[in-house]
Amino acid sequence: MAFIVFIICLVWFFLMYRAYGSFLSRRVFKLDDSRKTPAHIFCDNTDYVPSNRWVVWGHNFTSIAGLGPIVGPAIGVIWGWVPALLWITLGTVFFGGVHDFASLVISIRNKGLSIGEITTKVIGKRAKYLFMSIIFLELWVVIAIFAMIMGVLFKMYPTSVFPIWMEIPIAITLSYMVFRKGKSLELWSWIALVAMYATVAIGVLVPIGIPGPNAVIIWIIILMIYAYIASTLPVETLLQPRDYINSHELLVAALMIFAGAVAAFIRDPGHLGFVAPAFNFSARGAPPVWPFLFVTIACGAISGFHSLVASGTASKQIDREGDAKLVGYGGMIAEGVLAALVVLAVAAGFGANGKGLADGIAAWSEHYADWSSASGMAANIKAFVTGASNMMSYIFGNSRYIRELMMTIMGVFIVSFAGTTIDTAARTQRYIVQEFGRSVGWRFLTGKHIATLVAVGSAFGLAMVKPGGQGALILWPLFGTINQLLAGLTLVVVTIYLTFKRAKPWVAAIPTGFLVVMTGWAMVMNVQQYYRTHNWLLVGVGSVVFLLMCWLVFEAVTVLVRFRKNPPMLD
């Protein structure tokens, strides 16, 4: 049953990429390869670099994925696997795909500017500063929290440390051989993939850990230094090739999970039945499914962070406009597939342990006994790793070394996503700081090294506010809602843009209305909860963000009314 449902999801995503993706390309955005992209117009071989579409797809996919499509669906199945999969399949196609595709195309047609800067053209200067404040807040938390998560994951999976850090010399070698020496991208992609999986096998034998109670803090410091260096290097040197080879490594891992599911289904269809309930709206301690499902499962359906990647880094690397369909819409479709695979792993993988459905149902019920036990980051990573490893054991066996190897592959799978997100978030935050510096006339902020220092240094400061580098956890409870509010506000900008261009604005307007209502509703409920628990910091931050959202929506409506007959000129 679970395997068949997943196959249906795959067919749906494939058909919608061909049908709805093509509709958006031809009828809405009217992609034109004769237009010069910012990568050609402003080519500087640092940030603006025309690149192979599959290389840019790899960068975009691994950057937007992060841990979101793993953790979100792993939590969301507490309400049942049916609501989780419905939101993932519909949200990816009609919400997230439109959001990512539109953010990328609009940025390409406006000099590769960020979505915050584009807001100036579409809505106005006041709206830009409001939008950029929310963007800075989101990226500030992302860099700090993902650095902490990577530190924790290195501690949880010391066998992943060696392969993760070996990705850097492998990526630099690929960059040198392909971009400098002109060697075959296909050949060196295979060489890099084999080399990376060889390091995974070695990592099982040579786990690397930092002793002592401050291991996570030491990792955070190392990762912040790395983020500074990586985000100031030319994209071709490290960011782009690392994300590209990571995409191959991660796709192979996903294929192994899928192959394990096939093997389990062939051996005995009962071994891969759903152990999670189809619907579970009375889970102990869980918030109501409306509106919190749409905030909890973000990256697997729609995420505001994606617009920052699309308009921050990806738009500066697109070679031809036609590549935007694969990179923008195709990247989101790939993330939807990953999110559906995670649902399969956590909703059915618990039962793929050879002990039968009854044992799997008991294991699932224990893990998802209540909201507090199911919603923790570590708990959901463990749920995914356990489910995925159970399924892969049907192919590779269940010996001690093989089990450790499978756990390491999953550890590398997860840590690699987190690492690429830090890379891209730090570079994108640098762009935001530079754009702010240009807007207010602070020239010292326009230099890449000072701007990067502000981006990375402020995130490090946030991480260090609490012991163990856990400072970002102070704001983390609001992150999901802020992220989805950002997605809703991005869609507001897209709706206005398409309205002015008379290009079927309903494709964005319908998702906009739904998402703004759902996330605004969730933010109000969150603030009420924080008020009852006397968490005044989150009451204040949540209230300010909600008011900023209301202000931006008001500004947008005002602009639509003012220019409905004579819209401003937009690219």
Automatic annotation (TrEMBL):
Question: Subcellular location, in the record's words?
Answer: Cell membrane
Query: Is Membrane set as a keyword in this record?
Result: yes
| One cellular-component annotation, GO | plasma membrane
Q: Which family does it belong to?
A: Belongs to the peptide transporter carbon starvation (CstA) (TC 2.A.114) family.
Q: Record's superkingdom?
A: Bacteria
As for membrane topology, the entry says: Multi-pass membrane protein
One Pfam family from the UniProt entry? Answer: CstA
Transmembrane ranges?
A: 84-108, 129-154, 160-179, 191-210, 216-238, 250-266, 289-314, 326-350, 401-419, 440-462, 474-499, 506-524, 536-561
Q: Which keywords are on file for this protein?
A: Cell membrane, Membrane, Transmembrane, Transmembrane helix
Q: Where is the CstA N-terminal domain?
A: 2-521
- Does the record bear Transmembrane in its keywords? yes
GO terms, biological process = cellular response to starvation
Query: Which InterPro entries does the record match to this protein?
Result: CstA, CstA_N
**What broad class describes the main subcellular location of this protein?**
membrane
This one is known as Carbon starvation protein A
The record, for PANTHER family, names:
INNER MEMBRANE PEPTIDE TRANSPORTER, PEPTIDE TRANSPORTER CSTA
